[in-house]
Task: inverse folding
């Protein structure tokens, strides 16, 4: 945990002297990849960040969107990968805690959590199973205790995460626009540390997260305490209502070093703070330990002297610590003392702004022939479908979300397990939120894979009748100093920027996590995209399907098997053509589905993604206890083999369940938008049957499928 | 009709309960912080769900020693209707206002799912508008929700008609599938499932009317008293 030699020279030249030990630790924390984004920041600017609904303020840790009626929605995404790989329970729990405080620091109440979890092959690897089980418990215990519903997420297993874990947490906040904290500070204002005590846990956490995981440094993992976090949330919202907060920042990576330098730099102020005023958990902590400790459940607040008493009263009510640790100056310096003795005195802009890098990139060799098609021996289709239904990536995740309180807050209109969960808002509108990733696609084609994740998240919110209004991106890669890895990062970013610009969806928050390496090498490129959708009036709440309802497929099925669950799980084959999003049809399909939903013509809309059409149809039938007989002759413009028709993961596809009486109207709208669509068949009986050229190619009893799909994941975990 | 909603450090269903009481059923609901006292003229008291004191030691055990519990006890003795939901039920049990204990669920996991209740006692102020054995679709969300008492107390509970709600299925290993009980007088009721999450059509995927009867029963009980 130190600076690179050239960084040390740079620091010396900027301050004109040798740094003190405390200064060195502060700068090492703040210039770490985790805090400074030094490898990625230059490039992130290509993402569009403005839009008619975006509200920008200096120093916000979360994105803010105006949702009308005087209300705002805030959103942010974070990961806690390195800590979770070492100590999954605490790592995952503190990951939730951190993102919650980002939402809180804008002055909004957190109303939802979503989490994306990725581990190694849990069928073979007991370590992966242990990581998975404990990460889920960590999230459950933390989120449930806070009373913030965990409304969605995704779980994926892939051998590239062997002995490792990706734990991504997104959170959404809601509040009145007038209550947003407009970060400001005047000379003489007080700097206050509120919440839990500062201990030795998490020391050097941000540098730990900015390096490949070689040693299992458990002391760099923070210890979670959701009870304190809950008290902080309530205390801060009470202080917000009483207008006691001038500026606020969460203490996350880099602890006080980061919070003090970034707050001062963003507001153009100086801060003088005394480490002996910080309430600590241990008595003999030295100044630099206090400055870089990443103990959780702490917030930095700036307020005026006149408001201090009221703030202290609120903290006393909730019995949380509230220490005046410093004072606002106008000298743009970060001055750290212990009593009267100075331990650090640095210009805030030097600390807060590491020199940005422009790393070299080169197209990876492995990509040269990866999209070539390969002849594979076709196994029995029915067996393949059953195997997929029971596979860890496709089987029901009820074992996971059943442990999360997803009802608290009484906003959850569409519950987890559907395409996207929907929350009701106090302004009469509804919010639909989804996160999606697909490292299998992204490995084969980083650009198209990333766009696919983005579109999939959009499709999911569209299925509830929501228009995408903002996106969150979480970009997770291996060591950026490897030009081949950095190339995949740039491709991903360019793809996301192109789609975001074309669809006018601003990026409202994001995070970059690099150095995600396992003992066997880098992880696959793993961008995770969150999409926030807004529904003005009527969300599509799925209605049970009944016999005679018609199943329509919107969007074309193409020869795009690369990275599919079918190729990878059934054939253990990594390669083939990666699904590509055609922007024009993506938009047309999206708009037509939204129009159909707004006219209340369908019972439900379901996204077609992992596992392809066969899985998407099976999911509809299993969750509705009904069979369906479909013809798949005309779902592609080209002649495709049976398994490609069934399992290709082409994008922009939606399954619509239409009551017979509305069929003509629905088809009219699809034709008007010039959308490729096909009537697949009719629901009824108790089997799913696929036929081509009037010949049945696959049939499956729904009850048999249900048993496998619902129980597989749980059985796998309980047999540890 | 004045209904107090008690807030402990770590309560997290207090705002949901307040919303349902005031916006859906038009009670005059008021929050009471656990260190305050309850006014004498209060008509009913609700202990909402959550994780009081972060479930430390055992769910509900620290909150059971909060200053306000003295007042709750006095009101209970006077026959004022008192409802504890989830953590509120755990607190009532830990404070001795209701019999039994709540153990970790059989799965050892937190469980959030929709269940079905059957009304076993329709004489309490919270169940008087139900038909006996009427079904209620309602969600649970707890880690320590498995009700348990010794054989002797169970006999007593049955004899005195203190079992108020039962799950219709085996949900979490609760003794006799008990989901809710009342005190000897019937005015103090505790239940693990969350009625406040089930009374609005928008968020209840099955049927919001049965659980609404819990609050409508209270309205009718208080109305009769006046």
Result:
């Amino acid at each position: 945990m130190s600076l690179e030699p050239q960084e040390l020279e740079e620091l010396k030249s900027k301050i004109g002297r040798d740094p003190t030990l405390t200064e060195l630790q502060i700068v090492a924390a703040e210039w770490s990849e985790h805090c400074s984004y030094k490898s990625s920041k230059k490039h992130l600017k290509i993402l569009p960040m403005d839009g008619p609904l975006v509200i920008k303020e200096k120093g916000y840790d979360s994105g803010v969107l105006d949702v009308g009626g005087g209300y705002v929605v805030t959103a942010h995404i974070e990961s806690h990968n390195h800590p979770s790989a070492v100590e999954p329970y605490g790592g995952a729990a503190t990951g939730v805690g951190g993102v919650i405080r980002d939402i809180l620091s804008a002055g909004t109440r957190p109303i939802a959590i979503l989490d994306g979890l990725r581990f190694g092959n849990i069928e073979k690897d007991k370590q992966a199973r242990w990581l998975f089980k404990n990460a889920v418990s960590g999230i459950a215990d933390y989120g449930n205790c806070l009373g913030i519903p965990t409304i969605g997420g995704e779980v994926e297993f892939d051998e590239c995460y062997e002995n490792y874990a990706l734990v991504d947490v997104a959170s959404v906040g809601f509040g009145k626009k007038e209550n947003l904290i407009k970060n400001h500070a005047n000379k003489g204002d007080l700097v206050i540390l509120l919440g839990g005590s500062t201990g030795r846990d998490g020391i050097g956490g941000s540098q730990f997260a900015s390096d490949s995981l070689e040693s299992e440094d458990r002391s760099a993992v923070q210890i979670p305490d959701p009870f304190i976090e809950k008290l902080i949330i309530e205390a801060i919202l009470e202080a917000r209502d009483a207008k006691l907060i001038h500026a606020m920042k969460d203490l996350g990576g880099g602890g006080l070093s980061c919070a003090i330098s970034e707050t001062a730099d963003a507001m153009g102020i100086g801060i003088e703070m005394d480490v002996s005023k910080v309430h600590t958990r241990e008595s003999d902590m030295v100044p630099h330990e206090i400055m870089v400790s990443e103990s959780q459940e702490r917030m930095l607040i700036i307020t005026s002297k006149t408001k201090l008493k009221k703030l202290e009263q609120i903290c006393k009510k909730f019995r949380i610590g509230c220490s005046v640790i410093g004072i606002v100056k106008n000298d743009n310096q970060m001055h750290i003392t212990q009593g009267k003795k100075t331990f650090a005195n640095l210009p805030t802009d030097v600390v807060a702004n590491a020199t940005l890098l422009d790393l070299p990139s080169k197209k990876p060799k492995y990509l040269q022939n990866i999209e070539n098609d390969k002849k594979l021996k076709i196994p029995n289709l029915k067996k393949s479908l059953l195997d997929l239904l029971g596979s860890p990536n496709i089987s029901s995740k009820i074992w996971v979300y059943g442990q999360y309180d997803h009802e608290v807050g009484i906003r959850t209109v569409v519950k987890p397990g559907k395409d996207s969960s929907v929350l009701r808002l106090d302004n009469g509108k509804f919010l639909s939120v989804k996160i999606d990733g697909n490292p299998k696609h992204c490995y084969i084609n980083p650009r198209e894979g990333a766009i696919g994740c983005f579109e999939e998240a959009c499709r999911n919110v569209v299925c509830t009748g929501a228009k995408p209004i903002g996106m969150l991106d979480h970009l997770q890669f291996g060591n950026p100093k490897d030009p081949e890895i950095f190339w995949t990062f740039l491709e991903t970013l360019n793809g996301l920027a192109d789609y975001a610009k074309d669809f006018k969806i601003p990026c409202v928050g994001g995070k970059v996590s690099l150095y995600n390496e396992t003992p066997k090498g880098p992880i696959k490129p793993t961008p995770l995209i969150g999409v926030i959708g807004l529904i003005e009036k009527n969300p599509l709440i799925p209605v049970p399907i009944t016999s005679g309802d018609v199943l329509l497929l919107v969007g074309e099925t193409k020869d795009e098997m690369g990275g599919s669950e079918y190729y990878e799980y059934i054939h253990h084959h990594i390669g083939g053509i990666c699904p590509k999003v055609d922007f024009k049809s993506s938009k047309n399909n999206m708009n037509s589905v939204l129009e159909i939903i707004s006219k209340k013509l369908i019972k439900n809309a379901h996204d077609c993604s992992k596992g392809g059409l066969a899985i998407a149809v099976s999911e509809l039938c299993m969750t509705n206890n009904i069979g369906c007989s479909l013809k798949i002759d005309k779902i592609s413009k080209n002649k495709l083999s049976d398994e490609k028709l069934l399992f290709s993961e082409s994008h922009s596809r939606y399954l619509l369940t239409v009551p017979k009486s509305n069929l003509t109207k629905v088809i009219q709208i699809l034709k008007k938008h010039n959308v490729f669509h096909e009537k697949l068949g009719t629901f009824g009986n108790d089997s799913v049957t696929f036929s081509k050229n009037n010949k049945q190619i696959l049939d499956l009893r729904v009850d048999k499928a249900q048993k496998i799909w619902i129980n597989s994941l749980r059985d796998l975990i309980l047999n540890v | 009709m004045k209904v107090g909603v008690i807030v402990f450090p770590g309560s997290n269903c207090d705002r949901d309960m307040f919303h349902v009481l005031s916006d859906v059923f038009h009670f005059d609901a008021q929050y009471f912080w656990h260190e305050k006292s309850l006014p004498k003229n209060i008509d009913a008291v609700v202990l909402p769900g959550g994780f009081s004191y972060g479930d430390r030691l055992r769910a509900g055990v620290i909150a059971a020693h909060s200053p306000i519990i003295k007042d709750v006890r006095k009101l209970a003795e006077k026959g004022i209707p008192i409802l504890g939901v989830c953590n509120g039920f755990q607190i009532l049990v830990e404070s001795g206002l209701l019999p039994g204990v709540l153990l970790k669920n059989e799965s050892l996991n937190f469980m959030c799912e929709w269940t079905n209740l059957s009304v076993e006692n329709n004489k309490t102020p919270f169940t008087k508008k139900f038909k006996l054995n009427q079904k209620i679709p309602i969600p649970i969300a707890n880690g320590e929700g498995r009700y348990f008492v010794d054989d002797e107390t169970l006999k007593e509970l049955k004899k005195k008609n203190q079992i108020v709600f039962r799950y219709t299925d085996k949900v979490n290993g609760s003794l006799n599938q008990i989901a809710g009980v009342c005190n000897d007088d019937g005015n103090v009721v505790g239940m693990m499932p969350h009625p406040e999450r089930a009374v609005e059509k928008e968020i209840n995927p099955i049927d919001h009317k049965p659980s609404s009867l819990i609050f409508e029963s209270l309205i009718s009980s208080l109305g009769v008293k006046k």
In short: The mean pLDDT of chain A is 94. The radius of gyration of chain A is 26 Å. Residues 359-395+542-720 of chain A form a domain with the Phosphoribosyl-aminoimidazole Synthetase; Chain A, domain 2 fold (CATH 3.90.650.10).
